Amino acid sequence: MTAAWKAAGLTYNRYLAIAARAARRSLKEDKRIIAERRGGMELRFAKWENGKMGESQDLAKANAAAMAEHASS
């Protein structure tokens, strides 16, 4: 059986981001503000080919681009 997030065409990271955002939005105002500050995504990654590191990319932007490309196909 395929996981619901996979059947919906989401990556696992995107699924977790959506779930975390929903959880943060359900909090009371004071706790929500604190949680939203922690929720910012500032992760970077780089692809390695033939033992050499490629260009470092922002994970959020790369994920958004991949989702847009997936939606258009």
Automatic annotation (TrEMBL):
Pfam families assigned: ATP-synt_Eps (PF04627)
Domain of life: Eukaryota
GO cellular component annotations of the record: mitochondrial inner membrane; proton-transporting ATP synthase complex
GO MF entries: proton-transporting ATP synthase activity, rotational mechanism
GO biological process: proton motive force-driven mitochondrial ATP synthesis
InterPro entries: ATP_synth_F1_esu_mt (IPR006721), ATP_synth_F1_esu_sf_mt (IPR036742)
Family listed: Belongs to the eukaryotic ATPase epsilon family.
Protein's name according to its UniProt entry: Putative Mitochondrial ATP synthase
Biological classification of the source: Eukaryota, Fungi, Dikarya, Ascomycota, Pezizomycotina
